[in-house]
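## retry 2 of 3
previous attempt timed out at serialization; input unchanged, resubmitting
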Amino acid sequence: MTTLIIYYSQGGTTDLVARTLAKKLGAYLLRIQDLKNREGFANRLLSSISAFRESKTEIAPESVDLTPYDTIYFGTPTWSGNPTPAILTMIDRCNLRGKDVVLFATMDSNRGDANIERLEEKVKMRGARVIESFTIATKNKSPEKLISDTEAIIEMKDLMMYRR
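## retry succeeded, writing output
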């Protein structure tokens, strides 16, 4: 059995964290695409409202077969203190019964804990067991610092022990 990291990233910081995790943990990656235009000031404002309301969105891929995986990571940026519509939509489409899940969120401020709490509620409703979670502050950090912070979390949380 193997590990899969499912994530959404708009600006690239969550992508960098997910790629660092995959490299260090030997995991597979699946980047979710939000098919709705989220660029520009007006669309970003509407995106924050959608995150707050937990609105669903059209995503690609539409779903994923998790049968080959026993440990699943879900990662998302934090929008208005909440998970993104894309990751919530994917979680709602997954059969997580019997899966071990690790949750992570990137954030500009200190509002990622509410994001993680909501993700935890969602995956537990789908039958998963949350084995670990973490947030990474990204504001004003270089890519090298984000990689270093992610590697430190892997060590601190002993995420290597969940590899199979």
